[in-house]
Amino acid sequence: NAITYIKTHTFYGHYLAELINQFIAQKEIDKQEIDFIASHGQTIFHQPDKLLTSQIGDGAAIAVKTGLPVICNFRTCDVALGGQGAPIVPIGDVHLFAEHRFCLNLGGIANISCKVNDERVIAYDTCASNLVLNKLAGHFNLDYDEGGKIAAQGKVHDDLLAELNSSWYYRKPYPKSLSGGWVNRVMLPIFNRFRVTPQGKLRTAVEHMAIQIATEINHIYEREGIPPNPEDSMLVTGGGALNTFLMERIADKAPVKVVIPDEDTVNFKEALIMGFIGVLRIREEVNCLSSVTGAKKDTVGGTIYYAD
Questions:
Q1: Phi, psi for residue 61 in degrees, rounded to 5
Q2: How many Å apart are CA 233 and CA 249, to the nearest integer?
Q3: Is the pLDDT of residue 119 over 90?
Q4: In 3D, which of 206, 80, 116, 103 has the Cα closest to residue 154?
Q5: In CA terms, which of 33, 169, 171, 261 is 20 to 30 Å from 183?
Q6: In whole angstroms, what is the distance from residue 278 CA to residue 222 CA?
Q7: Do residues 294 and 175 make contact, with C-beta atoms less than 8 angstroms apart?
Q8: What's the whole-number average pLDDT of the chain?
Q9: In 3D, which of 79, 183, 73 has the Cα closest to residue 126?
Q10: What number is the average pLDDT over the span 96-111?
Q11: Is there a contact between 139 and 89 (Cβ–Cβ < 8 Å)?
Q12: What percentage of the chain has pLDDT greater than the value 70?
């Protein structure tokens, strides 16, 4: 309900501020050297077709409790202009990881970006990722399937795989985006309908993700008129990049070279880019690309809160 939502938004902002202050103290960072905090927050509602997106974590609370400027609400301007508001990180892929034609992030949702040429980049959500794998790992009282070891022991269930691959979302042209709500309403009920071992469900989920990611790479080549090139590279980051078995299946299916960077980049690429998006906001430069989101124009997104 509304009061629970706004309380959570407010108190989560205060909690984030406490964590930030702890981090600054532990790392012995001089606050005078900090220009701002870029805080994405936690997405609760994301329905861009209804011009709606909401990330909780009150920026004003963070600013007041840390004494530092805070930039947040990076997606709202793009959504107001008819965009998907997602993915948001391709601006960083363009400027910070330009040597890779493709960048794949395996977070709760898998999203991919592609540098079509020097002037255009596209990006969108491809399929569910860790939101599904971690839920299925819960059958074993685990938070996640470390290295994909359990999935590797299972067998692909063909009927389950076929139904997963038949989702309407995969036929929808980009730009497009997914949410946790879609995973809960659409994907997880499919797994629940099939009498398959938990290992088999994990194995089938991994195969489904590898197939969808490879399929989308081929679709991008075709739709954008890019000659397929096995020497094109795809940088893979996010928690899923640490899932060895998932990465083996993606590398087997994908028509490009799969590159897994150092562990810091795997874990913190999106945080790094969020800081970069904040830099662009402060400089009043474009930080959200309409070629990615489908908005009416590029935007300079982000609300700025000052401590005083």
A1: -65, -40
A2: 16
A3: no
A4: 206
A5: 261
A6: 34
A7: yes
A8: 96
A9: 183
A10: 96
A11: no
A12: 100
Those residues with Cβ within 8 angstroms of residue 233's Cβ, 6 or more apart along the chain or in another chain:
99, 100, 101, 102, 256, 257, 258, 259
Q: Sign of torsion, CA 161 166 167 172?
A: positive
Convert 68-98 to b/e letters by CB count within 10 Å (16 or more is b): bbbbbbbbbbbbbbbbbbbbbbbbbbbeebe
Question: What's the Cα-to-Cα distance from 82 to each of 79, 85, 256, 295, 296, rounded to whole Å?
Answer: 5, 9, 32, 5, 6
The per-residue pLDDT for 180 is 86
In this structure, what token pair is assigned to residue 136?
């299925």
Pairing of strands 257-259, 233-237: parallel
Strand pairing partners for 52? Answer: 47
| Cβ pair 244, 263 in contact under 8 A | no
83 and 288 Cβ atoms separated by less than 8 Å = yes
Both tokens of 230, joined, read 């096995």
- The strand pairing partners of 72, in sequence order, are 303
User: 234 by DSSP, 3-state: which?
Assistant: strand
Cβ neighbours around 219 below 10 Å, total:
14
- Using the predicted structure, report yes or no on whether residue 64 has a pLDDT greater than 90: yes
Q: CA 244 → CA 96, 198, 224, 250, 260, distances in Å? A: 25, 19, 31, 10, 11
Percent of the chain exceeding pLDDT 90 equals 94
Q: Give dist(CA 202, CA 174) in Å, integer.
A: 27
CB atoms closer than 10 angstroms to residue 119: 7
Distance from CA of residue 250 to its chain's centroid? 17
Lowest mean pLDDT among 74-78, 171-175, 179-183: 179-183
